[in-house]
Amino acid sequence: EDAGIDDNNICLPDTRREIIKGITDWVKHKNDNTPRTYILCGEAGTGKSSIAHTVGKELQELQFLVAFFAFNRSLLESRTPSNALRTVAYSLGVGDHHFADGLLQAFEDPSLSGSTSIQRQWEKLIVGPAQRVDPAKQVVIIFDALDE
């Protein structure tokens, strides 16, 4: 319920175009000096989630490898960093068979258990498999509602 871009939550046509274009341009035109993290801040109810869903959908349409995870305060069990990472890894694996191969290899590692540190999970489930993805295909991970 937390994972995936929701077409029902995207911005209405021709709305929020300036901020959406700014974010998609940031992703499309990154270089070594571009910050690797984009944080969209704003008051509750200002459309941040809709912007996140819209950007994710547009980047998928541009053939970026996109994973999306929205935290939800009503689903306590899903709000763990470990669950978020595993869901993102699964989503990226579904989107790219090279990533999926790396992910399968990571799960063969017996040291990767539920008690493994988040840093190690990040390295094994995201960074390692992402290195197998075609370098021309950019990986984008969107986390929504981190404050939930």
UniProtKB/TrEMBL annotation:
Show the InterPro entries listed in the entry.
NACHT_NTPase, NPHP3-like_N, P-loop_NTPase
Q: Tell me which residues make up the NACHT domain.
A: 36-148
Q: Which UniProt keywords apply?
A: Repeat
Q: Does the keyword Repeat apply?
A: yes
Q: Which Pfam families match?
A: NPHP3_N
Keyword Repeat appears in the UniProt entry: yes
Q: What is this protein called?
A: NACHT domain-containing protein
